[in-house]
Structures are given as C-alpha cells and as structure tokens.
Amino acid sequence: MPHNVSLISTIATGFGLALIFGFLASRMKVPPLVGYLLAGILIGPATPGFVADMDMAGQLSEIGVMLLMLGVGLHFSLADLLAVKRIAIPGAILQITVATALGMGTATLWGWSLGGALVFGLALSVASTVVLLKALEARNVLESVNGRIAVGWLVVEDLVMVLVLVLLPALAPMLGGAADPLAAAGQNVWLTLGLTLGKVATFIVLMLVVGRRVFPKVLWLVAKTGSRELFTLCVVATAVGVAYGSAKLFDVSFALGAFFAGMMMRESEFSHRAAEESLPLRDAFSVLFFVSVGMLFDPSVLVQEPLRVLVVVAIIMVGKTLAAMGLVLAFRYPLNSALTVSASLAQIGEFSFILAGLGVSLKLLTPEGHSLILAGALISIALNSLLFTAIEPAQNWIRSRSALARSLELRDDPLAELPMSVPQSVLTGQVVLVGYGRVGSRIAQALMDRNLPFVVAEENREVVEQLRAQNIPAVWGNASDPSVLIQAHVARAGMLVIATPDSFNVRKMVEIARTLNPAIEVVVRTHNEAEGRLLEQDEVGKVFIGEHELAQAMLGHVLFRMGHDLRRT
Question: How far apart are CA 116 and CA 306, in angstroms?
Fold first, then answer.
C-alpha cells in the first residue's frame, strides 16, 4: 500500500459517511447537509476514532466553493449584478455594520478586548456562499429578483471581507494583538487600504475588459475539438486557475475570482453547456465543504458554554435576519423579498472561519471565541433550511397580525402606481407583460416595433425606473399581488403574458387576472415539462415550454430549407 494516502482516505471517508448520514437525514425529512455536517464531526479531531486530514479537507472544500461560484457566475450576468446595486451595496454594508455592532457589544459584555470583539462581530456578519446558493437553488429562486438581490448582497459582503482580511494584520497592534511582520516594517494603514482597493479594482477591470473577450473565445476553440473531456477540463481549469491567480496576484478571495470567471464565460454561447458539464463536480465538492465545516467543530463547547452558544446563534439567525429584513423593507421591497433575503443571510460560513483563524493567529481572538464562531456556524447552517420553510407561514402571520407590516406594504410608492400621464388608449386592450427579463424584454421590443400597447409588471425596482425613464408604462411589484395587476389595468387588458421564470405564483396570477377580467387570454412560459403539463391540465392558458419551442423553431427552419412547410405537416 502507498506510504501516504491522506488525500484518498479523506475523500473516501468524507464521501462515504456523508452519503450514509445524508441519506438518513433525508429519510428523517431533514436537509441532507445536516448529515454532511455530522459526518464531518465524526471524522474530526474532536471525536474518537479516525481523524481525516484537516488541511486536505479544507483545500478540497475551497475547490467546492470555487466551482459553486463558477456555476453562479455562469447564470448571473453583469447586468443582473448592476440591476440590484442600489439595494445590494448599501444593504450589505449596513447589515455588516449592524451585525458587527451586535457581536462587538456582546463580546464587550463578556469582558473581551476591543480587537477580539471586532473580529468576533465581523465573523458573525458575513454569510456562507455555499449555504446561500444551495438554499436558493433548492427552491428554484436563484434567478428570481429575490435570488439576484441575495447574490448581489453576498458579492458585496465578500468584497468587504477581502478588505478586512488585508487590513486586519496591519491594524492588529493598535487593537491589542500581535504585530504583523508587514506592519512592523512600518507599512502605513492607509497605504495598505489604497493598495488593496487598487488591486481589487484592477482585477475587476481586467476581468470586465479582457476576460469577457478572452474566455468566450477559449470556450469556442475548445468546443471546436469535439472533445467533451477537454471542454469540461477547460471550464474547471479556467475557474480554478482564475480563482487561484486572483488570490495570489490581487488579494481577491477564491470565491470572488471564480464568480467573475463564470460571469465572463457567460458571454459565450456555450455557457449553458459549461454549467451542465461542471454540475457533478460542483455537487461533489460542495459536499466536502460541509464535511470540512463539521471537522472544525468541537462539540464540547455546547456543554461548556451553552448560553454563549445560544447568544451567538441568536445574533446570527435573529439579529442579522431582522436587520436584513428591515433594510430590504426600507428600500421599499415587498415582505416576501425581505423574508427571502434575510433567510438567505441568516448563517455564517467560510469567510467567518478564515477571519476567526486570522484573529487567533494575531492574538486578537481567544480560542474560546474561535469555538463559539464555529458552533454558531454549524448550528445556523443546520437550521437555515427551516427559516426558508417558515417564510410563507411567517409572511401570512405578519400580514394578518401586524398593522405596521401592512402599512409598509400599502404605503404610497410612485413606482407601485402607473403615472397619470399614461394615455387611456394604452390601457385598453393592452398586453399586460409580467416580467422584463431575457424573455420579457424581447417580447416588449417586438410589441413596440409593431406599435402594440403594453404595460410591464416587474419586481425589480431598478428595472421599473429604467422603463419609466424610457416612457414605457411599468408598475413595480409581484403580479401575484392583486394591487399590481389592478394597477396594470388587467381588467381592460386583451392579454396577460407571464414571462417570468417564477412558476410558483403563476396560478395565483391567472386566478386574479380572470377574476378581474374573465375574458382575458393568458400566455405562460416554463422550462419544466412536468410543470408545463400541470399548467395545461389546470387550463391556465397557452403554455410554452422552452425546449419544445426551441425544437419547433429549429424544425421549422430545417423543413423550410428542405422545401417543406411546417404548417402542412
């Protein structure tokens, strides 16, 4: 047998136990990731028996984070990111500030030093990339407005943490910690900050200017070889290579580097294939991430400091949740958006571990603080899925019992009402277009080219503002809310076109529209065949399934070129 098989033993035991505990968790109606965490605890140094290689597991989990962020980037365009900048940037910064203040205040009450309290608070303020994306993907809301806000929020958090990780060693002596070699050499804090901002800006500009031109061409050249394995290798090598290079050259996190690599590859016509080819690897390595989190956890802290653990979990899952929810509502987004975004952020993960480890090495954070952060991460990750399950009941309960919540949703908002200047001719027999994404915007352009009247109903405030600036009638809100369709004058509309990928609320939208206008014609899109069949059975209207329509269009072109007419077949 080979003398060193630590990598093989770590992967074998990690995958094997994750499969067993994940299966048991699923049978008990608990998210499988809870089983993955338990598998990690079992092979970690805090429990008896076999102990996996901690360093190896940590590096494998980093690869999982890179591949997962690659997948997000492949589905998340630069336009999507910029569309939520008005809420993501200030929201993330304010939420980090609130959560850090809660953590620092608590640590100060416990008698910790200023530096330890600061590290503790910052570690509790930033969400886990893997957990957030897994939760959004599992509920098919990653590409929704709420999902885009959460991902944009996460990207801003990552950028803030990059700055924190670079500045903390320089600030450590001022905060009562050990002197970092660079700081001891007299490196100025402001110079460090300037260099960091310059590096991050250089990386982003390089990716936007060079990356979006180079990566699509590379994918095209490799795809021309016809080799599937080479194409998969190109996708993975690009993600890992850019992530590693960005960390080494620009001090950017692995996750952020891979995310931008994916966003640039999205410019290629092969982006969907790249996402599909990398999916098995993303799933496998994300499992190792949860296993590695479990390996870091020492269960004894639950016995030694149960009250402090509860306080930490409360800050993460209650304090952060309420802060994020309040901020989203303050930006005049609906309660559903506030609950979804806040639930997405109600956990901590990989950046928290890195920050806690750095705090201990700089003698700012005590080992007790490190253990409490890990305990908070493990428990919040395990319970995060329960928050998502509770979104709809919580929404109904809040609306029924809270006059404040109802007033927030019913308050005057200029974007929630059509301008008085919209002519009545546009509001009679018009098309009500729900969603202004990749599909909806093309439909709208075709209607404009033919001078056909239409009104857009869109959840993204920034998109509605842009449409209003172009004198296109648009109303902000979720079309499953009767007031939105009423404002779109659906009662006098000729047709309702639901172009949003949110199939969950389609039936409710159709029910409202037909209550207000029984004669209205409805058109719905979906990419899910099973969902399409159910919608057809419910007689919601004409259902277009993405793959079917693509095949039909291609067949029509083929038959036409071959001298046949599709309409006669």
Answer: 20
What is the Cα–Cα distance from 519 to 517, expressed in whole angstroms?
6
H helix runs in 28-53, sequence order: 32-42
Closest CA to 212 of 269, 264, 272: 264
Angle at which helices 546-561 and 529-537 pack, to 10 degrees? 100
436, 498, 496: which is closest to 470 by C-alpha? 436
Whole-structure pTM value: 0.71
The answer to whether 69 and 59 have CB atoms below 8 angstroms apart is no
The string of DSSP codes covering 238-300 is: HHHHHHHHHHHHH---HHHHHHHHHHHHTTSTTHHHHHHHHHHHHHHHHHHHHHHHHHH--TH
Using an 8 Å Cβ cutoff, are 120 and 112 in contact?
A: yes
Question: Could you give the count of Cα atoms lying within 13 Å of 468 in the half-sphere of its Cβ?
Answer: 19
Separation of first and last alpha carbons in the chain: 66
CA distance 297 to 138: 26
542-545/474-476 β-pairing: unpaired
Q: Each residue's pLDDT tens digit in the chain (569 positions)?
A: 555 678 888 889 989 999 999 999 888 877 787 888 889 889 988 888 888 888 888 788 888 778 877 877 786 667 777 777 888 889 999 999 999 999 999 999 999 999 999 999 999 999 887 788 778 877 777 777 788 888 888 888 877 887 787 778 777 878 877 655 544 444 566 777 777 778 888 888 888 888 888 888 888 888 888 888 898 898 889 888 988 988 888 877 787 788 888 888 887 777 778 878 887 888 888 888 888 878 878 888 888 889 999 999 999 999 998 999 888 888 877 777 888 889 888 998 778 887 888 888 888 998 888 889 988 988 888 888 888 888 878 777 776 666 666 555 554 566 777 877 788 888 888 999 998 888 888 999 999 999 999 999 988 887 888 899 898 999 988 888 888 888 888 988 999 999 887 666 788 888 899 999 988 999 988 877 777 777 777 777 888 887 777 788 888 878 878 877 655 55
